[in-house]
Each structure stands twice: as structure tokens, then as C-alpha cells.
């Protein structure tokens, strides 16, 4: 009999499975709390369960393991990059960012990525597979256990396109916010997408209270196609229509991510074009000086270009922030640490 990934079962599923092996439903609640509140990695740690029940659990289920391979701390102490090995040997990465308002963790949703964005290291090796719900949760739990501090904000913006792993993503969000488990607010979760239009419409119907972040990176389709292959399938107009519907259904303001690439999309003219595109929309723009990767020629914009871009957008009445550069000294941009590890493993 094939064992079940117990940490990927939501509360109702776990209770049902526990009843199937002849136990009372309240045992399911106890087990769920051990897995998602105390984040134990071994059935023997569940000390309020009988030895007989613990053996039953071992016979029928497994707790998906996530092992830290490497940990890098930035010099300022605000950012920690983690490289994790999964049970099948796949390698993923996560980032802990410390802010005054709390700890934020950026997690991966896939092993690799197939979106092919030209400025991103995550996609250089292509997509290997989707992450399971337990592997997504496991990144948060492992980091919290190592740091001994609760994670208050979760960003699904690491390796992978979250909406390309749609079913597991939505289940992950519902489980992470379940009162029986970790119980984080949906408003403290951000999901980033390069703009899979059909999935944005589908996500809107889930009526979640998360923040949706669109990786835009250009104000027009011509420039966007040079940066992001997905732009050949979905136009900016289609993305804007989907965002309008998302806001209409959820009432949640859309965030637009804009990576500034020197000499490519950072001029004042592009800022004005973006301002005209987003004016009078209930949105937020996050300007990101691109993290250079050795496989590409892209370079980050000069500071004065970034500031000028922000000022122009603000003249259009748009709420804008410049993302604080965190962890550049430890390869904290998406996919960089994993790529270095994978390359060194081939030697």
C-alpha cells in the first residue's frame, strides 16, 4: 500500500483518513495541530497519541521531509537565503526577510520554472515539477523552526510560476490560513504571477483575500515580449481586463511588479506610458532594481533613473514604492543560489 503525504491533507481530509484507520475524529484534530502548529517532523514527537496510534500513522502515512543544504546570511542581518533538498532529491530555495513589522518568507512553488523570463535565474534549467502542498508549507515551517520566530507574512514569489501550480497553490493558501493549523491571515499572503490570464479569472472566483502581484516589467507588449516569453500569449490589455475582474470580485488592490533594467525599460518615457496605463486604477507599483545574473547582460538601473521613474508615476496619482535591495551579497534573487548549487554538482 502506498503511503499518504499526510501534511498535504487539509483538516477535513485528515480527519476522514484518521477515521478510516479506526480512530476517533478528535485524533485528527490533534495530529493536524502537531503537523501545522508545532511543525513536528516525526510521528514519535506526537506525545499525546498512544504508541499504537503512532505506529498506525507510520504504516499509513509519511511526513514529507525537507532538509537544509545551505544557509546564507546577509551582512546586514536582514536576509537569510535557504537551499533545501526535498525527499526525491530535488533542490529549491526560500528567503527570510526581516522587517520592523515582522518576518516575511518568500517561498518557491515549483522546482524550476518554464516561463522563461530573460532576467530571472529560476527559469534557466526549465521546469522539473510542481511542489506539493506539504513542500510549500514545509519551507515556512522549516524556517520558523530554525529561527525560532513566527513568520507573519508569506510571499509566493520564489522559483516557479505559482498559477502554473494552481490546485496545490490554492490548497496551500487555505491550509496555511486554516484556524486549526498555522492560522495566518489571508491578507498577509502575496502571490506573484507573470500574468496567466485564465488562471487570474479562476483565482478571482476563489474569493481569497490575498494580494495578487502581477509581474509586468514593461508598459507595452513590444518591450514586454523582449523580457518575458509569456507576453507572446497574453497581451497587457488582456491582463488588465483580468485584473479589473479580480478587483471587482475580491475588492483587493492589485500590485504590479516592475523590474527596472538599465537601458531597456527604465526611461522617463516608459514611466509616463506606465502611468497612463495604470492611472485611475486601484493599484500599487513596486519598482525593483533588477538583480544581475551572470547568464544575462541585463544590469540594474542607476539610482537617479529609479527615483525619476517613481516621481513620474506619482505625478499620475499612482502609489509607488521602491523595493529595498535585500540579500544581493548572498545571491538572494530568485533562482541564483539553486543555479550555483546545481552547476557545482555537475562538476
What would you note in describing this structure?
The protein has 347 residues and is an alpha/beta fold. The chain contains eleven helices and 14 strands. It has helices at 11-20, 25-36, 51-60, 133-147, 166-176, 197-206, 221-227, 236-250, 268-278, 303-315, 336-345, and strands spanning 4-5, 61-62, 66-73, 79-86, 91-99, 102-107, 110-112, 127-130, 153-156, 189-193, 211-215, 254-260, 283-289, 319-322. The strands form three sheets. Strands 3-4-5-6-9-10-11-12-13-14 form a ten-stranded mixed beta sheet, with helices on both faces. Helix 1 (11-20) packs across helix 2, helix 4 (133-147) crosses helix 5 (166-176) and helix 9 runs parallel beside helix 10. The chain is elongated, with a radius of gyration of 21 Å. The model has no long low-confidence stretch (mean pLDDT 92).
Feature tags:
single chain; 347 residues; alpha/beta; 10-stranded mixed β-sheet; two-stranded parallel ribbon; 11 helices; 14 strands; 21% strand
Structural class, by secondary structure, is: alpha/beta
Low-confidence stretches: none
Q: Counting H and I runs of at least 4 residues, what is the number of helices?
A: 11
Q: Mean of the pLDDT scores?
A: 92
**Fraction of residues in helices?**
25-40%
| Strand numbers in spatial order across the main sheet | 3-4-5-6-9-10-11-12-13-14
> How many strands in all?
14
Strand content: 15-25%
Q: Spell out the helices and strands N to C.
A: EHHHEEEEEEEHEHEHEHHEHEHEH
Radius of gyration equals: 21 Å
Main sheet?
A: 10 strands, mixed
Basic shape: elongated
Layout of helices and strands, plus pairs?
Elements: E1 4-5, H1 11-20, H2 25-36, H3 51-60, E2 61-62, E3 66-73, E4 79-86, E5 91-99, E6 102-107, E7 110-112, E8 127-130, H4 133-147, E9 153-156, H5 166-176, E10 189-193, H6 197-206, E11 211-215, H7 221-227, H8 236-250, E12 254-260, H9 268-278, E13 283-289, H10 303-315, E14 319-322, H11 336-345
Parallel strand pairs: 1-2, 6-9, 9-10, 10-11, 11-12, 12-13, 13-14
Antiparallel strand pairs: 3-4, 4-5, 5-6, 7-8
Helix pairs in contact: 1-2, 4-5, 6-8, 9-10
